[in-house]
Amino acid sequence: MLNKLRQYIKANIDSSLELLKKYVNYPSVATDALSTHQCAEFLVSVMEEAGISTTLYETSGNPIVFGEIPSDNAEAPTILFYGHYDVQPPEPLEEWFSPPFEAELREGRLYGRGAGDNKGQHLAHILAIKAYQEIVGPIPVHVKLIMEGDEEFGSAYLTPFAQEHRELLKADLVYISDGPLHESGVPLINFGNRGVMNFSIEVETATTDHHSGNRGGVIPNAAWELVNLLHSMSDGRGKITIDGFYDDVLQATDFEEELIANIPYDTQELAKTYGVKEIPFNRREFYERICFQPTLSINSLGSGDARLVKNTIPAKAMAKFDIRLVANQDPEHVFSCVQRHIKKQEVKGNVHVYKEGEDMLPSKTDARLPICRKVIDAVGEAFGKRPIVQPVTGGSLPNAVWTDVLKLPAISVPYANADENNHAPNENMQVDCFLQGIITTATVLHALGDQES
Ligand SMILES: [Zn+2]
User: Fold this and answer.
1) Residue 152 CA to ligand 1 centre (angstroms)
2) I need a labelling partner for 357 at 20 to 30 A (CA). Which of 5, 18, 81, 443 fits?
3) CA 330, CA 410: separation in Å to the nearest integer?
């Protein structure tokens, strides 16, 4: 039955691509409310056409499109697909080989803004749902889909919507396809991401810069004061020495350790590629650091004027930081630890520490859940390749809305090619990846409906 379904999906790839082209041609940059709304209406029609009963919800931002197909089997699990129909601004336009909103098929790829990020990926879900019903019959699980139009600018309206519609979004698993496959073409799966919090420190030691001869040795130097302050925050070997910085950090589970043991690992190659002297971590340490440890990064440092030889004592110095937070950590708590640490240091001057931007919370799902294991197996079956499962990705995504606001397990299974050029000119989705995506979703739906295993 699955074979027949896969054959059908392959045989219909041309019409699937035509639909993706039409979808990509909507210039749905979130700031263009009219085009984005039209794109949302088009999405509603595509979902309806696939047998999904769909509603467009107006928000204070762009619409949220929600659809569902209940299963005949009340006992069946509910899978909630998430995607976003808004796209990154296409600039710089002169670097595109074909216009970003006139999708073009070339050399086995569909080029256009949003082809991979994220229209091609969630359209794959919709087309799989349609194909499944046409070839196999009723979908064996309850299916829900939520598509938003503000992801590229931080998903500001998603959390309020989720808080207001808890019952509507109730599910056993949230399934997210965004981002690329591993560069080898092997599928990647992950169950969470680190959070991020940004802050700045400013040190001011005098009302003006001073002559380093006339006042050298008597007037405090803001650059030295900042350097000393930074020095107090780390042991110089990667460990942060701010009291409470590692509070609430969870150990990896045995299953997570097992997953880590199977992730490709080549630190020598990585070091060579980026001109890094040494990356002195074994596989376990390497991935534990990325998946399960918070970091404090100095993003920028400034004091004086680096372009000139001036013999001055700078009066001001500043640094910007990010902290990558791991599951179970609270950004407010970590920031209060930073503030307390700075207060305790003896700085000859005024220190101003303040947060910047919005925090993004960490998110993590327990990969040991039976439904997660079923998805891992189904993705492996669909690709004919064992997926690389990285328990947590190092970067930050707004997935806490699923795991923390709605308390739902969430799994990320990207479908785009590694060189999809998302957020860059000449964004594209390989036809093979699009096809494989449709097949994968169909296989996952089928596997989740199999109550036997
Ligand atoms: Zn994006």
Assistant:
1) 5
2) 81
3) 20
* Structural domain contains residue 167: yes
- Cα(177) to ligand 1 centroid in Å equals 11
Tell me the CA–centroid distance for residue 154 and ligand 1, in Å. Answer: 10
Interhelix angle for 431-449 vs 13-24, to 10°?
A: 110
Residue 81: Cβ within 10 Å count = 26
Please check whether residues 343 and 434 belong to one and the same domain.
Answer: no
pTM here?
A: 0.90
User: Which residue type occupies 397?
Assistant: L
* Ligand 1 centroid to residue 153 C-alpha, Å: 9
In a domain, 262, yes or no: no
Q: How far is the CA of 88 from the centre of ligand 1 (A)?
A: 6
Q: How far is the CA of 140 from the centre of ligand 1 (A)?
A: 31
CATH code (residue 225): 3.30.70.360
Cβ neighbours, 10 Å, residue 328: 11
Q: What's the token pair of residue 124?
A: 């794959």
pLDDT digits (tens, 9 = 90+) for 412-434: 999 999 999 999 999 999 999 99
422: containing domain: 2-193+362-449
User: How far does residue 27's CA lie from ligand 1's centre (Å)?
Assistant: 14
Helices 13-24 and 2-11, axial angle in degrees (round to 10): 60
Confidence band of 451 (pLDDT split at 50, 70, 90):
low
How many Å is the maximal CA-CA distance in the chain? 87
CA of 46 to the centre of ligand 1 (A): 22
Q: Name residue 384's amino acid.
A: G
Domain presence at residue 286: no
Three-state SS at 433: helix
Query: Of all helices (H) and strands (E), which one includes residue 350?
Result: strand 350-360
Instruction: Summarize the confidence of residues 295-309 as an average pLDDT.
Output: 94
Cα of 118 vs centre of ligand 1, distance in Å, is 7
Same domain, 88 and 65: yes
pLDDT in tens, 159-186: 999 999 999 999 999 999 999 998 888 9
